[in-house]
Design goal:
The structure holds two protein chains of two kinds.
Chain A: E1 25-34, H1 47-62, E2 71-74, H2 80-88, E3 109-113, E4 116-120, E5 126-133, H3 137-152, E6 159-160, E7 164-165, E8 177-184, H4 186-190, H5 194-203, E9 206-209, E10 222-227, H6 235-281, H7 287-302, H8 311-320, H9 323-330, H10 336-355
Antiparallel strand pairs in A: 1-5, 1-8, 2-3, 3-4, 4-5, 6-7, 8-10, 9-10
Chain B: E1 13-19, E2 22-28, H1 30-35, H2 40-45, H3 52-59, H4 77-83, H5 91-94, H6 96-107, H7 130-143, H8 147-160
Antiparallel strand pairs in B: 1-2
The chains are: A alpha+beta, B mainly alpha.
């Protein structure tokens, strides 16, 4: 079984709720897609090519100064539950973990350090990503920019004079940059304003997804907002734009929360305390149920209706109440009904410990 | 609805502008939209990324004079249409004009204006065997039944070895 404690921060520093607007914005993720010259892109490459890519970048990783104490995990050699564990912790994509329709690729690996990771043999040869707590776009980009500059000096990237950094999918070409913010918008959902806000995002060149990126459903009122285009604007412009729009979405969310309290105070208060009560005492919880109640409790904490519960604990509950995490704690793979029982117990114990 | 600017034409575009922390919505006719730099045809045709595969299926004929196949990875435009993924970096040169059109539709632009990359000099890089690279190309050429190309590559390989 994969020992996550070997990772520099257990791969969980992004949950520490330290950033700006941490109760509304859970995390900021920035990734750069890069490919090496001289090989076919990952989906078309042969096993041997992907293994040589891995060897080549592995040597480069070892001499990086912008990443300290990195650990290389051969994702292709992990058991399925460990691959799911890394994915649940947002450290690898679904595609790298072989959780899409395609099996895991030979040569799939991830190099991890505190808040930074490099996926190898994802859809692109390299996906550099920085994951920070809260709304920290500039900091996250600073980290990834330094890493990119250093790594690009050690391995030759595929770059085109007109099209920029070349990627397997043309939707990523140019800067190769995707910045996304994981944001909790229960106020806008409850006031039914969310449809307008989401439609507005698409009009201004941004897009939204569920918590686990492309193709994932929105659960627990958690949305990922990110840039849609990667070409024709500089990295700085893309990021500035995202920051301005997300600031505006945060203001709309705060406004919606004020409206809720003003117009439906006791109804909201009742709904949120019921969510808390369920989490505190239920004996079986499905993942969707847990996410929805946690969303309610998170809102209650944001509205200061419930005190003595930290945002850090709420973040941890989101991640550690997932299937592979529960199995990891129990030391064995769980069936769905076993996981529901284990989830309810984990949530109960965590909330009880926090109340003491 | 009437255009917010000229108060004359029919508004066909809803423009959301962000200035500082404020947001305003403008309803514009085609002419005023064009004057403000909003490409109306582009906005209307701009696909969501989710519909990307559909877009390349429907709107990506091969440009005239373009090679049928990438000489490095043997991928064809049909492969790209089927998967939505290009085979290698050289495909961007091989299918350059088809891709330029597609990129304009997807990103509203085909020119990279972000950071420029300068590759390190070969002498600064760890040595990668070109024979290994040729052997990969040889295998791919055989898989794609490109026997003439395979023979060329084999000759080059013999030269090195």
């Amino acid at each position: 079984m994969l020992d996550l404690s070997l990772l520099p921060d257990g791969g969980a520093s992004w949950l520490d709720a330290s950033g700006e607007h941490a109760d509304i914005v859970i995390s900021t993720r920035i990734r750069l897609a890069r490919n090496l010259e001289g090989y076919a892109f990952t989906p078309r490459a042969r096993d041997g090519e992907r293994l040589r890519i891995l060897t080549q970048v592995r040597e480069a990783f070892a001499s990086l100064r912008s990443i300290e104490d990195g650990v290389l995990v051969r994702v292709d050699e992990l058991a399925p539950e460990d691959r799911l564990l890394l994915h649940e912790r947002h450290l690898v994509s679904k595609e790298l973990a072989g959780l899409n329709d395609q099996p895991v690729r030979t040569g799939a690996a991830v190099y991890l350090s505190r808040g930074v990771g490099i996926m190898v043999n994802e859809e692109d040869h390299l996906r550099l990503q920085a994951l920070h707590s809260g709304f920290h776009v500039a900091d996250a980009f600073g980290v990834i920019e330094r890493l990119d500059a250093e790594l690009g000096n050690k391995v030759p990237y595929a770059f085109h004079n007109e099209f920029g950094y070349l990627t397997a999918c043309p939707t990523n070409v140019g800067t190769g940059l995707r910045a996304s913010v994981l944001i909790h918008l229960p106020g806008l959902v409850l006031t039914k304003e969310i449809g307008k806000v989401l439609a507005g995002l698409q009009q201004v060149g941004l897009t939204y997804r569920g918590m686990y990126g492309e193709g994932s459903e929105v659960v627990g009122n958690f949305f990922q907002i990110s840039n849609q285009t990667t070409l024709g604007r500089s990295e700085g412009e893309l990021l500035d734009y995202l920051v301005r729009v997300v600031r505006h979405v945060i203001e709309r969310e705060e406004e919606a929360r004020r409206v809720l309290l003003r117009d439906a105070g006791y109804i909201i208060e009742d709904k949120l305390w019921r969510a808390f009560g369920t989490l505190r005492y239920a004996r079986s919880l499905s993942f969707e149920e847990a996410m929805n109640y946690l969303s309610g409790v998170r809102l209650a904490v944001g509205l200061k209706l419930i005190s003595g519960l930290s945002v850090y604990t709420l973040n941890k509950l989101l991640i550690f109440s997932q299937l592979a995490h529960l199995g990891h704690t129990e030391g064995r793979a769980l069936t769905e009904s076993e996981a529901n029982v284990a989830r309810a117990r984990y949530v109960r114990d965590t909330l009880a410990a926090e109340a003491e | 609805m009437i255009c917010d600017l000229c108060k004359d034409g029919e508004a066909v575009i809803q423009l959301t502008e962000i200035e500082g922390s404020g947001v305003r919505q403008l309803h514009l006719c085609e002419k005023c939209a064009a004057e403000r730099g909003v490409e109306t045809t582009l906005t209307a045709a701009k696909p969501q990324i989710n519909n990307f595969l559909q877009t390349i299926h429907e709107q990506m004929p091969a440009a005239k004079g373009e090679p049928a196949q990438c000489s490095f990875c043997q991928a064809t435009l049909a492969d790209f249409r089927a998967t939505g993924r290009l085979g290698c970096a050289h495909c961007y040169d091989t299918f350059e004009s088809s891709l330029r059109d597609l990129l304009r539709r997807v990103h509203g632009n085909s020119r990279h204006i972000g950071r420029r990359y300068v590759a390190p000099l070969p002498t600064e890089l760890p040595h990668v065997s070109s024979a290994t690279e040729l052997r990969d190309r040889l295998k791919r050429a055989i898989d794609a039944e490109q026997f003439e190309l395979a023979a060329d590559i084999r000759d080059k390989l013999r030269g090195i070895e």
